[in-house]
UniProtKB/TrEMBL annotation:
It comes from Antrihabitans spumae. This is Gfo/Idh/MocA family oxidoreductase. Residues 9-122 form the Gfo/Idh/MocA-like oxidoreductase N-terminal domain.
């Protein structure tokens, strides 16, 4: 018996969205159609790579196409609306982080997914990095002393609190096994520091610099016995008595692994309350921390652009 390949509609085909479309292609997913803002360069990219595939200008035309999944990689402020519409059309939904910029809207999405029994996945792609897999399997949560993130990303999309910080929060929550009740965010829309203390556990520090180069993303973990693990871009340095041991990983594997996980969970009809809970918590933490920073300093720069 042959089964037809899974199909998806893609909302957003920008610089990141094209990577996501390629990753789904590697998983055998056929595009049923696309929704874009309508730039000429995107239309010509689509006609070159997917000749004949429908390119809709209307969301409801797109959602009436035969597809079981919707992949939302349009700009941040459109995520919640598109994800909700696709869930309502009974599709499994992949939505880029953040799924929404209010806890209310993120919670409503999670509720809709549960009600429809659809799989709602927020793309925290770094959780699927094989270097992170190693950290998770090699380190015990109660051995962690300091968890420190440093991300330099010149010309980062702003505000970095919504564009980049969700990734670090997801990694820290998964690594420490703990969702903080509050975090502190200091800074402005391009550079920030975020920190919190895990109850009876490590301090977590995040620094994001969206201006200065060179580009580098690093996570350092110190354990209680003083050893340091360091994950920089696609390289993991594990401690060893003769000095750190280096291990390099592929840049494209995390996104492919993430797409595979989404497709499998969608096909098997799984939905995960645990996953939704983390995504909602991340939105809630950022929303409340930004509001607290604003009332403390009156700094308008940390609120969404
Ligand atoms: N998970 C990750 O690691 C990761 C990494 C990078 C980015 N992202 C996220 O991915 C998303 C897209 O980023 P990007 O860099 O690809 O952005 P981008 O290059 O600006 O692309 C945005 C895409 O959305 C389309 N679009 C714009 N407004 C729209 C609307 N109202 N309705 C439907 N489509 C619309 C654009 O259409 P046209 O092409 O016609 O203009 C374009 O195809 C962002 O939310 C970003 O935060 C995630």
């Amino acid at each position: 018996m042959t089964t037809s390949p899974p199909t998806a509609v893609f909302i957003g085909v920008g610089s990141w969205g094209r990577n996501v479309i390629r990753a789904f292609g590697r998983c055998g997913v056929q595009p049923a159609g696309f929704l874009v803002a309508g730039s000429g360069s995107t239309r010509s990219w689509l006609s070159q790579h997917f000749p004949g595939a429908p390119v809709a200008s209307d969301l409801y035309d797109l959602l009436s196409l035969p597809a079981s999944m919707a992949v939302v990689t349009s700009p941040r402020d459109t995520h919640a609306t598109y994800a909700a519409a696709a869930l309502t059309a009974n599709m499994h939904v992949w939505v880029e982080k953040p799924p929404a910029t209010t806890a209310f809207a993120a919670g409503a999405l999670a509720g809709l997914a549960a009600e429809r029994r659809r799989y709602l996945h927020t793309a925290f792609t770094y959780l699927f990095h094989p270097a992170f897999d190693q950290l998770i399997t090699q380190l015990r949560q109660d051995d962690l002393a300091v968890v420190r993130f440093d991300w330099r990303r010149p010309n980062a999309p702003t505000p970095v609190a919504w564009e980049l910080l969700p990734h670090e929060l997801a990694l820290a929550i998964r690594l420490t096994g703990w969702i903080p009740s509050d975090v502190v965010i200091e800074g402005d829309s391009t550079c920030l520091r975020c920190h919190w203390q895990v109850d009876g556990g490590p301090t977590v520090e995040v620094e994001i610099d969206g201006c200065t180069g060179p580009k580098e993303k690093r996570l350092q973990v110190q354990t209680r016995d003083g050893t340091t693990w360091s994950w920089t871009d696609n390289t993991l340095y594990r401690p060893h008595r003769n000095g750190p041991v280096r291990q390099d990983f592929s840049r494209t594997d995390p996104l492919w692994k993430e797409a595979q996980c989404f497709v499998t969970n969608g096909i098997e009809g799984r939905w995960s309350a645990h996953e939704s809970r983390m995504a909602v918590a991340i939105v809630d933490l950022i929303e409340r921390a930004l509001a607290a920073t604003k009332s403390r300093t009156g700094a308008p720069g940390v609120t969404p652009d």
